[in-house]
From TrEMBL:
Residue ranges of coiled coil: none
GO terms assigned for molecular function: DNA binding
InterPro entries referenced in this protein's UniProt entry, alphabetically: LytTR_DNA-bd_dom
Organism of this sequence: Gelidibacter gilvus
Residues covered by the HTH LytTR-type domain: 128-223
Protein name, UniProt field: LytTR family transcriptional regulator
Pfam families: LytTR (PF04397)
Gene3D superfamilies linked to this entry: LytTr DNA-binding domain
Length: 227
């Protein structure tokens, strides 16, 4: 899901098609408020918010840099034909700005590279429990029958009362499934033994065995140096 603020442009449509081909974008006419934007992002599991700064810069400027609040805000991109406006937008917390010199392919590549390393907040909801966690705080998720255990880098384990599938479909691309019941965060992957299908995560003493059916799925795994 993509939230677009302002009229979409040709380059915007190319960007949308590149990473969200199966989900139509959600269009919003203006910024409204960061609280509203955060709620929309949470409701629609948005990976990205795109703001047309040429149409909505005044709204952005009026709201000011309110990014210190612990809101669920995904990767936020501004698009503008005015370079000075683009630089100013960084003061309000935008993660990237695309200008007139960026062709569609460069925009897509830059987005894909950024989203793989982005440590924005992830939202988990389980009954009355609502969690906001950064992606680099999560080592892996493991299914436990019809519930899910969330293993953090701090050593804490948090039980969630929904299936792994219900959470995995909204995780960033750094999270890959290596078993039917296991999704790991490849940001912490440091070694792979392909012959025995073993892999290790930084900060976790255990060894993970990835299933043959998922050998081609975790594309980041095969790029790691073998142990």
């Amino acid at each position: 899901m993509v939230i677009i603020i302002g009229r979409p442009t040709a380059i915007l449509n190319r960007l949308i098609a590149a990473f969200a081909p199966s989900r139509p974008p959600l269009y919003m006419s203006d910024v409204q408020s960061w609280v509203t934007l955060a709620e929309q992002a949470r409701t629609y599991h948005a990976l990205c918010v795109i703001i047309n700064l040429d149409l909505n810069f005044a709204d952005l400027e009026a709201l000011g840099p309110a990014w210190a609040q612990p809101l669920l805000l995904p990767y936020i991109i501004g698009m503008t034909n005015d370079i000075s406006r683009g630089f100013t937008a960084f003061k309000y917390g935008l993660h990237d700005v695309y200008g007139p010199g960026d062709c569609a392919i460069h925009v897509v590549k830059r987005y894909q590279q950024a989203i793989r390393s982005f440590n924005g907040y992830l939202y988990f909801e389980s009954g009355k429990k609502k969690l906001y966690l950064k992606s680099n705080e999560i080592l892996f998720l493991k299914a436990d029958n019809y519930t899910t255990d969330l293993f953090l880098t701090s050593g804490q384990t948090i039980p969630l009362f929904n299936t792994l599938k219900s959470y995995a479909q909204y995780l960033p691309s750094t999270f890959v499934r290596i078993q039917k019941s296991l999704v790991i965060n490849t940001q912490f992957l440091y070694a792979v033994e392909s012959t025995k299908r073993k892999c290790w995560l930084i900060g976790y003493a255990g060894v993970f065995i990835y299933s043959p059916i998922y050998i081609k799925n975790p594309t980041l795994l095969v790029r790691q140096p073998e142990n």
